[in-house]
Amino acid sequence: xxxxxxxxxxxxxxxxxxxxxxxxxxxxxxxxxxxxxxxxxxxxxxxxxxxxxxxxxxxxxxxxxxxxxxxxxxxxxxxxxxxxxxxxx
Length: 89
Hints:
4 helices, alpha+beta
């Protein structure tokens, strides 16, 4: 998976939000607010380029005190939300 071109993470009034820019804004038409951990995962996904739930879960385990099982469940949930709003390819 990877983040679709045209979607970026921005700080808007102290909130971390995913928004569409350029072509991405045409179909998206909304802001998606992220909590601190979800914003961190988005940045990791950007850095990794092609990523998997497992690669993001491993990065989460390396950064935070969380079990591998919990990290995979949490990452799968947020990636699932990103897929629902169509910001991943």
